[in-house]
Automatic annotation (TrEMBL):
Record's keyword terms, sorted: Heme, Iron, Metal-binding, Signal
GO MF: cytochrome-c peroxidase activity; electron transfer activity; heme binding; metal ion binding
Keyword Oxidoreductase: no
Entry annotated with the keyword Lipid metabolism: no
Domain named Cytochrome c: residues: 393-599
Signal peptide segment: 1-23
Entries under Pfam families matching the protein: RoxA-like_Cyt-c
Designated name of the protein: Cytochrome c domain-containing protein
Amino acid sequence: MKITLSILFAVLLSGCIAHPLEAPLPPAVVSEVPENWEQAQARKYQEKSNYIQSRQVAYDWFGNFAFSEIDGIPYIALKLLPKLAPQLWGSDENFLDAVGLFIDERQQSYPIARGIGFSGLSRAEAQGNIDYASFTCGACHIGRVRLESGQIDYLDGGVNTTFNIALFRVKLYQTLQTAYAGEADDTKYQLLTQKLLDALDTVHQQNPNYFYNNFQAGDRNFDAGYEAAQIALFKQHAEQTIKQFAQRAEAEYEGFGALIAKNYAGLESEMLAGFPGMADATGLSAINGYISLRKIPIIKGFASVTLPPEPGITDFMSVWEQGKRRASWDKSHTRLINGGGQWNGNVPMPIYRNLIAMLTLGLEKTDVRVAAFAEELLDGLPASPYPFNVDIGLAKKGQALFAEHCADCHQPKNGKVYDNLGTSMKRAYVVGALLNYAAHKQLYANCAPDTTVQLEGKDIKPCAEFDGVSLDDKKDLLMSPNNEHRGYNARPLSGIWAQAPYLHNGTVPTVYHLLVPDERPASFIKSKLDYDPRYLGFAWNAGQTANPNEGYLFQANAISALSNKGHDKDIVEGKKTYRLNWSGDKPGAFAIIEYLKTL
């Protein structure tokens, strides 16, 4: 009882400690408009290419490597899903286009869509285990835009606006139900196993490179020999492996239903269909705790206590130039200030920021190396340059307006949390005291100061210190106290053109609509790849694209968490007024838009 009370006290205390974070002192950083955009654009492209090439190993881990070597979806089973229920999945070339994952033309021999990794890429012993698959960092954070020529420009570190993680889980569950054909208990798993093995034999007989496409990564060849050996390993324990995989998928679907029932009343069908480019990541992570409690008969009825108190659905974030959001120590080295991650800055250290995103999948032995390589890559990864033309004269006018009204908040190293902008506060309250405590525990369990991993042949301790200060006895800093983050950060705006739509909940289609709130639409098309250079955002109505089947109709204000209000009234701080509503000065709005293209 004493232990229980002490834990409860610690949980409550962690939610009460608060130290307001402040914005950096002026003068604010304001980038100069280049004299020649074509040259500046070419230079930005080259700088980003050079940066990635100099960190190619880290980039590969970010884009292609699974989050665990011993857990996830059996890779062979994943590639057989369309054979079980072809009507639920996408094209023959890429069945995962049904959930917004794409074939990256820059790595055409990769055996599956960008955003899926498999453990054979990282496992030391090639045939030491079957390959497990999971989403990668690139699933959410490698995006695309269609250029005027019709070609695709890839946005490394940007946002995959088409990825629908919720729909993937729903389709996976529906595929299993199709395969069960009405059977129940262990009979359904036996039937599923037989159907997968039959499909496996059929596809492999037709194509001995069906699963791996004769892919090569480094010194490892995923050729017909590798594939045959993996198939043999998979068959050895197929029934047990497939049953565990299916039970986990069923539990995740049940947990997702519980999350929807608790926090998304009136939006049930839309949540099951999923919102491409969006997710309730905190909710998906909390489902793992829900699943664990549901396994304990005496307390299974209370499992929903692990779910967030509020709906936390938000847009995916661009993750480039993380150094501009990197927190720093205060003078006493007891507190992290002047930066932070997530929408509200509550995960200040980059390694844990990456790790907490990975823990969303709830995998056993999450691979800390992925988080460490992502930290290396993202700290200075340049934003993708705006790929269209810029009116330099108009941009210079916008620079002056930006400096006067925007720069004081949207600057590097601003850890301040703003709660006075009128945006929906639901996401800011999604991490309650219990979730905060659980997150601390999980983060520390996966990466403590003495955790050692091997990166590029060297043993390192990625969580031993931060900026030269030991993290021993600093477990409480892995996430900041909840009361420091009842609002949202004003992020630096590098590459802001590619973050569209806007606000944390993605309810405002373009920068124009952000600056001119009187014209914000109640509904618009999301997840198109075409772009609206005038309003600065992805194409948002049906008439703007030659691809009518692309995107989906998004309804703002369907629930309060999806309100498109906020950042729509002028703010007075001290003796200065910051204009946020430019409805009365549209030329000024367009000047700011032109300037933002250059960042």
